[in-house]
Design goal:
The protein is an alpha+beta fold. It has 2 domains: 7-83, no CATH class; 96-337, no CATH class. The chain contains 7 helices and 16 strands. The chain has helices at 22-52, 73-83, 118-131, 138-145, 281-295, 302-309, 326-337, and strands at residues 10-12, 18-20, 59-61, 64-66, 100-102, 112-114, 165-170, 173-180, 189-193, 201-210, 220-228, 231-237, 240-246, 249-259, 262-269, 274-275. Strands 7, 8, 10, 11, 14, 15 and 16 form a 7-stranded antiparallel β-sheet that branches.
Length: 339
């Protein structure tokens, strides 16, 4: 005789244990799942209602703010765009105390200048040194880059620095070095080209350093690696033309900071002429990219010069490949030395 109306829900297992019948267990499981589903629907509806009732908060831009109660996304976006703060681009600092010199990696001999915009002025001086090796006379390079022959303006192109000696930071020690400067004769023209007549020079920054009381009045000096591929050096002056072969080499150019964003090309370190004949272009190009990234500076080459200033290689003189008469070279050197 059953003693409860729920007795039909149970059965006695072989071991004497009372258990819920299987269909009862199934019904209970289905019931739990239904309750969970209903709860999920309730939560979702409450979130939707909350979202629809959302009032955008105050939007602040500089000292202006607005309170909006619209729920139209287009209007909200318009308000945000209208009130977005205007970012003012400050001019690049021109006073060295406002710059930061940072060691790009432990053990580097020279440092990186931050902000990187400082290199814009340096690049303009380097552009001059590239242009005069791509067939532009000193006068043409001045005109193309807005320089003049007035040395009082600290023109990086036309400061005569013959036999100048400065104190510089070399091999991790302050040392006195001589500088070789390029001829400053206004109409002297030269090309450094590969065997197929393409521009051969690439300049890469090696870094900069503070000179404090050194540097002949230039507070910061930068050292630039100037690499020339194997090929030819073509020179003309006064109607005379000479072409000589050159090996792949590296010289170190020194640039000093004058003032007001202007840099002066002081010349090349005397006695430094590194033979790079055994180094492939692939290895050199990787080195250029590494230094460019480490110092946040461009790779200064013919492509950069064209992109930045619109200056391309000038056509080589007719017959340049055969112009190897040594007497022509002596005449040109005599003209340069006489001025």
């Amino acid at each position: 005789m059953k003693n409860s109306k729920f007795e039909d829900l149970y059965y006695t297992a072989p071991g004497g244990e009372r258990k819920l019948k299987r269909y009862v267990v199934a019904v209970l499981i289905i019931g739990v799942l239904m309750v969970a589903a209903i709860a999920w629907v309730i939560v979702q509806r409450s979130q939707i209602r909350a979202h629809m009732a959302y009032v955008p908060p105050t939007i602040t831009a500089t000292s202006t703010s607005v309170q909006s109660s619209t729920t139209d996304p287009t209007q909200i976006a318009t308000q945000i765009a209208t009130l977005a703060p205007v970012v003012s681009v400050s001019a690049c600092p021109t006073d060295p105390p406002e710059w930061t010199l940072t060691e790009p990696a432990p053990g580097n001999q020279y440092e990186r200048i931050d902000p990187a915009c400082v290199y814009d002025g340096l690049g303009r001086a380097i552009a001059w040194s590239l242009a005069i090796q791509m067939g532009y006379s000193r006068a043409d390079a001045n005109d193309g880059l807005g320089f003049s022959f007035d040395a009082s303006k600290n023109n990086p192109a036309m400061v005569a620095l013959s036999n100048v000696t400065i104190l510089t930071y070399s091999n991790w020690a302050v040392a006195q070095i001589g500088l070789d400067s390029a001829p400053m004769t206004a109409q002297f023209t030269e090309w450094a080209v590969t065997p197929d007549g393409a521009p051969a020079v690439t300049d890469t920054i090696l870094g900069c350093f503070l000179t404090t009381s050194m540097g002949d009045g230039y507070p910061i000096l930068c050292v630039i690696a100037e690499d020339t591929q194997a090929g030819y050096h073509v020179i003309t002056l006064g109607g005379h033309l000479y072409t000589g072969g050159v090996k792949a080499n590296r010289v170190l150019s020194v640039f000093g900071y004058a003032s007001d964003g202007r840099w002066v090309w002081l010349g090349n370190e005397h006695g430094v002429d590194v033979d790079q004949s055994g180094i492939s272009q692939a290895v050199l190009q990787k080195g250029y990219r590494d230094f460019s990234e480490g110092y946040n500076a461009p790779i200064w080459n013919a492509q950069w010069l064209k992109t930045t200033f619109g200056i391309s290689l000038k056509p080589l003189p007719t017959g340049w490949q055969a112009a190897k008469n040594a007497s022509e070279l002596q005449i040109i050197l005599g003209l340069l030395n006489s001025q």
